[in-house]
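Case study.
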Amino acid sequence: MPDDISADRVTAIATAARVPLAPADAERIARAVSPTVARFARAKIDLSLETEPATFVAVQRREIGR
Amino acid sequence: MTDPAELTLTEIAAALRRRTFSSAELTRWMLARIGRWQPIINAFVRIEEDEALAAAKKADRALARGKAKGALYGVPLAHKDMYYIKGKVSECGSKVRKGWIAPATATVLTRLAAAGSFPIGALHMSEFAYSPTGHNSYLGPACNAWDAKCITGGSSSGSATAVAARLVPAALGSDTGGSIRLPAHFCGVTGFKPTYGRVSRANALPLSFTLDTVGPLALSAEDAGLIMGIIAGPDPLDPTTLGAPAWNARAARASSKGLRIGVPARFYVDDLESDIASALDATIVVLRKLGAKISKVELPDQAVVSAAALIVLAVEATSAHAPWLRIRGADYGPQVRNRLQNGLAYSAVEYLEALRWRGPALAAHLDAIGDVDVIIAPASRSVAPTIAATDLGGMPEAEAAIQAITRFMRPVNFLGLPTLVVPAGQSKSGLPIGMQLIGRPFGDETLIALGRAFQAATDHHRRIPALP
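After joint prediction, the assembly is written out as follows.
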């Protein structure tokens, strides 16, 4: 993942999602979300191929009756 | 008549059963109190006087005949205006849903009605539950009962300030990124965010289906446990609840002696205002006196967990609102529209990597805390700021300000953990301070039991704000 989000990227995703977006908004969004994306990217999280969203439920439910 | 303002929900329900006062007397008392406070704190979006009095009289007739059933029989309540009642308006704090009539009733409201409670109105909330301050450009801000110049916190703004002012003895809120816990802290009430999957969200407004939880704001941990006993449990209309354990009332009353309580070594204790740090230290002293074993814990990097929560929340909220953003973007308030637009910045791969990481992140959290039962952490690094200082609307700096306010909130949502916020002190300026007691998955009852013990040893939760 890139550490910084560009306004061009925001505009491209908004266009694909069919949500109208002014150029100034794309600039603002890029500035607003870049720290979050950078923080998550820097963590270099290593996910196994088999990990899926429902893995959370499996981990969580091990605690029932603990 | 006994002053109901001095009573908790549990005590009010018992007083009704003993017929210390009638449901109609209680309802009239509440309506009069709402009338005095509403112009100051803007807690209600609707007050349903005639319907409430009719329901109260019906409850009194049943009580007189000995036909009353349910733990909350004859108790008027009000909830965040995002819990649908079939055939009634639910605007969810928004212009977009102005006049919207709900097609079905929320499971949690059906369960509360079956326990004998009835609505007295509906409560203020942040627009579409997507702001942590209590500002709302459509409704105007809700104001803090302790100081009307200050924010309530959000998004369960009306629930927190109404309970603080004793306009209702309890109210449902929702918590996706701190929306029960932050208002509970700022307004000095007890707030409970259950384990993800413990309470049905069916026919309630969604914000982020991965993170949304439903829970009470109340006057005590005992009251929160009473509400949880009614609303928790599997619901076929919400698949995330299937397989979750039923509420264990006995465990919620168990002794807390010997509980292992962890104090985070960093993140939650960094850069605290002195009043908050003092309240944390004082709370630890009380917990130790109650027989808890206190130790330091090194949690995984909470800033990364928080970032993952932000990504998931942003994308899911934007996905839910995309149909309206395409054609009615101008009908949103500027701050909520900006936040919803932020979700357009993330790629599908980034979103799914964050979502897939949720299980491993929870496993790492459990590894890190070992046999610790509960983690204690402040809810915020400060007490409630003023409405003026946080009225940032759609300004570019709003997102950073929101993230600062919710800093101690988001990891709990990402990990799906239960958390009880208990009033734990006050600042030199008299504003409330709350502490988070963060449990293990499905350790909800342990938190209620600990909260009860803490509140038996302290009186922060009994403080009542004076009408200005």
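Observations recorded in class. Chain A is about 55% helix and 0% strand. Chain A touches chain B at residues 1, 5, 9-10, 13-14, 17-21, 25, 28-33, 36-37, 39-40, 42-43, 45, 47, 51-61, 63-66 (CB under 8 Å). We will return to this complex in the next lecture.
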